[in-house]
Specification:
Distance between the termini: 21 Å
CATH architecture: 3-Layer(aba) Sandwich
CATH topology: Rossmann fold
Largest sheet: 4 strands, parallel
Order of helices and strands: HEHHEHEHE
Number of domains: 1
Number of helices: 5
Shape: globular
Helix content: 25-40%
Strand order of the largest sheet: 3-2-1-4
CATH superfamily: P-loop containing nucleotide triphosphate hydrolases
Number of strands: 4
Length: about 130
C-alpha cells in the first residue's frame, strides 16, 4: 500500500512529526526558490527523495537547479533527486518508477520466497509522506 500525507503549513511541521511513514519525500516547486533546503534543513535531512516540480517553468523563473541540488546534498548527502513536470509529463516515468520500487516491501514475505515479481535492487520503503 502507498499512502501520501500532504503537510499543511510550511516545511518545518512534517519533518518534526513521526507519522509512521517509511520515507519522507520533499516536493519543491521551482517557483519557491532554490534556498529551501537551507531554509528548512530538517525536512530535507529527513527526506529520502527531493522531487523538483514544475520544471517546465524554469525558463520563466530565477531558479538554479544545480545550486538547489547542492544545498539539498549539503543537508542530506544521501537524498535522491528527481526533476519533474506534472504539466508536460517530463520526469513522471522516473517518479512513478521510484514510487513502485519504493512501495515494494518484504514485510509480509522474504525476498527468497517464491512469488510473481522480480527483485531488483530497490529501496525498502512501503509508504511515503510528502511535503509540498
Amino acid at each position: 500500500a502507498l499512502l501520501f500525507i500532504e503537510n499543511v503549513g510550511n516545511l518545518v511541521c512534517p519533518a518534526m512529526w513521526d507519522l509512521g511513514e517509511r520515507a519522507k519525500i520533499a516536493i519543491l516547486s521551482v517557483t519557491e526558490g532554490e534556498d529551501k533546503p537551507l531554509k528548512y534543513p530538517d525536512m530535507f535531512a529527513a527526506a529520502r527523495l527531493l522531487v523538483l516540480n514544475k520544471i517546465d517553468l524554469l525558463p520563466h523563473v530565477d531558479f538554479d537547479v544545480p545550486r538547489c541540488i547542492e544545498y539539498a546534498l549539503r543537508v542530506n548527502p544521501a537524498i535522491e533527486v528527481l526533476l519533474v513536470s506534472a504539466k508536460t509529463g517530463q520526469g513522471m516515468d522516473a517518479w512513478l518508477d521510484w514510487l513502485l520500487e519504493s512501495a515494494h516491501t518484504h514485510d509480509m514475505h522474504g525476498a527468497s520466497e517464491a512469488h510473481a515479481h522480480p527483485h531488483a535492487a530497490a529501496p525498502a520503503a512501503a509508504t511515503a509522506a510528502g511535503a509540498a
